[in-house]
Design goal:
single chain, 250 residues, alpha/beta, TIM Barrel, eight-stranded parallel β-barrel, 8 strands, 46% helix, binds 1,3-dihydroxyacetonephosphate
Length: 250
């Protein structure tokens, strides 16, 4: 039985003081949850977030990393750097990075491999545009992105990965995929993983839904058998609302 994993992606929001106060509040509000909870904070908050999350059930992730360990890459942060301060998770290939920062399936794959090399757990984002969905290509796009992101990984690595299915048209728009549509897309991703790595592996992979997840729609989404939790943007900035999402009970 897979557990539900609920991650907040703060994107480019929250100053260190906000992060400190938020994590303290969230840890109290969600202290009894059975679900896993991750906060993916901006780089400048990570150290404070890690200090606050110590001795709580909250895990900390970053939102991106470079695929090289070190070198002349001005302004970049490596997986080794994140691991060294205690970060556990890292979002890779978020659609905003694919769209605005030239992230490709190839760099996503390099980053996923680099994350495993240093012991970080990747949260890999895949998702189709509205145009692709309307053309009936959604399933092809998301299964291709998944296949390319996982290329060259061992079965042991694949079974510990988190995939976030985030349809681009649902991100920050207030438009959520219906629970049935999200379930079908996630099923297609799991089927693709099963074809390549076997059903045993595919059944272990956590596949989240992301895109306008709110307190009011999260239960319906998380009740779906293949939706293993969510990657939450806007609603993860409000402690009370995010806590309600995290405190999901099946
Ligand atoms: P919203 O929840 O704000 O739509 O963002 C989703 C997202 O991009 C999470 O990574």
């Amino acid at each position: 039985m897979r557990k539900k994993v609920i991650a907040g992606n703060w994107k480019m929001n929250m100053l260190p003081n906000d992060a400190i106060n938020f994590i303290e509040k969230l840890s109290i509000l969600t202290k009894d949850t059975q679900n896993e909870v991750i906060i993916c904070a901006p780089y400048t908050d990570l150290f404070y977030a890690l200090l606050m999350a110590q001795k709580t059930h909250i895990k900390i992730g970053a939102q991106n990393m470079h695929f090289e360990k070190k070198g002349a890459y001005t302004g970049e942060i490596s997986g080794e750097m994140l691991k060294a301060i205690g970060v556990e998770y890292v979002i890779i290939g978020h659609s905003e990075r694919r769209q605005y920062f030239a992230e490709t399936d190839e760099t996503v794959n390099k980053k996923v491999k680099a994350a495993y090399e240093v012991g970080l757990k990747p949260i890999v984002c895949v998702g189709e545009t509205l145009e692709q969905r309307e053309q009936g290509k959604a399933e092809q796009i998301i299964t291709d992105q998944t296949e390319k992101a996982l290329e060259g990984l061992s079965k042991q690595q694949v079974e510990t990965i988190i995939i976030a299915y985030e349809p681009i048209w649902a991100i920050g728009t207030g438009k959520t995929a219906t629970a049935e549509d999200a379930e079908n897309s996630i099923k297609a991703i799991r089927k693709k993983i099963a074809e390549q790595y076997g059903n045993d592996v595919a059944q272990k992979v956590i596949i989240q839904y992301g895109g306008s997840v709110k307190a009011e729609n999260s239960k319906e989404l998380f009740d779906m058998p293949d939706i293993d939790g969510g990657l939450v943007g806007g609603a993860s900035l409000i402690a009370d609302e995010f806590a309600e999402i995290v405190n999901y009970k099946g």
